[in-house]
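Researcher: Sequence recovery benchmark, item below. Answer with residues only.
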């Protein structure tokens, strides 16, 4: 695409003006065609100074999740090599699910600047305002049985925690199985959905929602006591594109390790960031509710809960709440 070629030339000459004539000769198009592409790039948010008469200078790129910007410098083999970007979409998970059914390969990514029907676990709505967060879904095609899929939610949670820690220098805490918190407030939620037969996963979609640049006042009043953003933690705006790159890189590395070597390494990485063990918790699954102390994460990724009567309960899935106190 001529637009991408113009950007490549302007990036190579960053800090210097490039004449319209030079761009015209390099691309084999008219200067009028160059001007039209420059205008289109400006409309996309690229800060390009100049005119056909004075030449063009790239002054900055937008903090938007354009595929070209994500792939630039991306160190993955398959994750993010194909990216679908939307300004506005109902749910990135739904789009990715539809693409997976159409045969798109493992590693295909869907990102959006805004979701109008974003959802988290238990079908709860996920607040996804425009250009402030990372709303991303990833198609995977692991060779595994459905019973192993809950372990992948732990893979994703640990990978996102590691990526945020590496990029921003603070340690998010993981609430089992994969919510990322800071000072008890939620930064990131992860939703894994799959299509499978009884013994074999056909594909799954990992949906990742990260609150990045919201300020407290941006959240609806009902979320201000429970939600936080990376900006609220660091005190400054966070560039989203480098963080998306790093998430894809770490997640691919951890996913491939999990597929080849099993859950042991995932468990160790998850334990480095967990904030659940040793604490009083309540776990709700349907009509059942368990209250006790979170004691351990077993070798399969299940939570081991010590109940008030002393029995050890294995929790495979459920909605967990950290409690201030469990009565003895």
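Model:
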């Amino acid at each position: 695409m001529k637009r991408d070629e113009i950007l490549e030339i302007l990036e190579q000459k960053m800090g210097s003006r490039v004449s319209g004539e030079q761009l015209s000769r390099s691309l084999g198009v008219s200067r009028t065609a160059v001007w039209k592409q420059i205008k289109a790039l400006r409309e996309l948010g690229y800060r390009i100074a100049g005119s056909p008469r004075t030449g063009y200078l790239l002054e900055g790129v937008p903090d938007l999740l354009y595929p070209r910007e994500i792939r630039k410098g991306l160190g993955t083999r398959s994750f993010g090599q194909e990216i679908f970007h939307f300004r506005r979409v109902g749910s990135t998970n739904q789009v990715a699910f539809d693409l997976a059914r159409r045969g798109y390969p493992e590693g295909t990514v869907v990102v959006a600047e805004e979701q109008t029907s974003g959802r988290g676990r238990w079908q709860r709505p996920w607040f996804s305002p425009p250009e402030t967060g990372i709303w991303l879904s990833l198609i995977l095609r692991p060779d595994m049985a459905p019973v192993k899929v809950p372990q992948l939610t732990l893979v994703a949670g640990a990978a996102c925690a590691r990526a945020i820690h590496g990029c921003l220098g603070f340690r998010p805490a993981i609430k089992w199985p994969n919510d990322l918190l800071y000072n008890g407030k939620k930064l990131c939620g992860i939703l894994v959905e799959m299509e499978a037969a009884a013994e074999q996963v056909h594909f799954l979609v990992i949906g990742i929602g990260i609150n990045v640049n919201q300020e407290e006042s941006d959240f609806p009043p009902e979320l201000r006591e429970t939600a936080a953003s990376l900006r609220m933690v660091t005190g400054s705006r966070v560039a989203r594109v480098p963080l998306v790159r790093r998430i894809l890189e770490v997640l691919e590395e951890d996913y491939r390790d999990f597929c080849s070597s099993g859950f042991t390494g995932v468990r160790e990485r998850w334990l480095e960031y967990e904030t659940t063990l040793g604490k009083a918790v309540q776990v709700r699954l349907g009509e059942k509710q368990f209250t006790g102390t979170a004691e351990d994460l077993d070798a399969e990724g299940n939570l081991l809960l010590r109940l008030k009567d002393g029995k050890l309960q294995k929790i495979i899935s459920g909605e967990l709440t950290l409690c201030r106190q469990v009565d003895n």
